[in-house]
Write a structure and sequence with these properties.
Layout (H helix, E strand, L loop, with lengths): L2 H7 L14 H12 L10 E6 L2 H10 L11 E8 L1 H9 L5 H4 L2 H24 L3 E5 L6 H7 L6 E10 L13 H4 L8 H22 L8 H8 L8 H7 L6
Antiparallel strand pairs: 1-2, 2-4, 3-4
Protein name: Oxygen-insensitive NADPH nitroreductase
EC number: 1.5.1.38
Pfam family, one: Nitroreductase
């Protein structure tokens, strides 16, 4: 096992950071690492907004359900799906890409491109000794985030990434059994999957029980059943249409 794999296997979300600011050289190195990620058909259909203004960070805390580490970190990045630059490129070339970027395929490509870039940035940051945490709760009010960051049409905020020097050492959450994720040739049958999930419920229940001193004991299965019982952020469909993405 090499150092890169060790870093990957050691990943955990950090939600408390020491007072520290990233220097410009580190910021640029992280962005370059993000840009080196694979991208569908060379589209590079994402934008990264570096949020440096403290007042702006505090307003994003409000969007993100009061999560203070959105503001209290070394640097905060917001990853967006971005087809605005493609519309400008089409104009420069005397063309039109509007029908393409309004498709569901474009939605998938933009989200995947942004996710790949973000994970490259996270791995790079952690290799330098920083901690990271993804902030999906920015989608609680993507319209507000879009307004705050002055995002044009065809640009949609997807999630944030907070980076900083760790001021905590949380336990590493156990992942699903490999056989519940990695399927050889065909998808695993339901009986086997149920057995795997039952065992995983027990291990994650034990993890949370130890982490909280017995105050929380539900495992992954019960968490998913509860958290996914009702759909969330259903306004996003209309918001995407407003941004002129995924209108088909």
């Amino acid at each position: 096992m090499n150092e890169t794999i060790e870093h990957l296997l050691n990943h955990r979300s950090i939600r408390k950071f020491k007072q520290h600011q990233l220097d410009e050289e580190t910021i640029e190195a992280l962005i370059k690492a993000a840009q080196a990620a694979s991208t569908s058909s060379y589209q590079q259909a994402y934008a990264i907004i570096g949020v440096e203004d403290e007042g702006l960070k505090r307003q994003l805390v409000d969007v993100a359900s009061g999560q203070q580490y959105v503001a209290e970190n070394s640097y905060f990045f917001v990853f967006c799906m971005d087809y605005h630059k493609h519309t400008l490129a089409a104009e420069l070339a005397g063309g039109d890409v509007s029908r393409t970027i309004e498709t569901t395929e474009a939605l998938v490509v933009g989200a995947v491109d942004a996710g790949l870039a973000a994970q490259n940035l996270v791995v790079a940051a952690e290799s330098l000794g920083y901690g990271t945490v993804y902030i999906g709760s920015l989608r609680n009010d993507a319209r507000r985030v879009s307004e705050l960051l002055q995002l044009p049409d065809h640009v949609v905020p997807l999630f944030g990434v907070a980076v900083g020097l760790p001021d905590q050492q949380p336990g590493k959450k156990p992942r699903l059994p490999m056989d519940a994720v990695f399927h050889r040739n065909t998808y695993t049958d339901d009986d086997t999957m149920r057995e795997l999930l039952t065992g995983y419920e027990e291990s994650t229940s034990s993890y949370y029980g130890e982490r909280t001193g017995g105050q929380r004991t539900e495992g992954w299965v019960k968490q998913m059943a509860a958290s996914m019982h009702e759909p969330k952020r259903t306004y996003l469909r209309e918001f995407l249409k407003e941004k002129q993405i995924a209108k088909d």
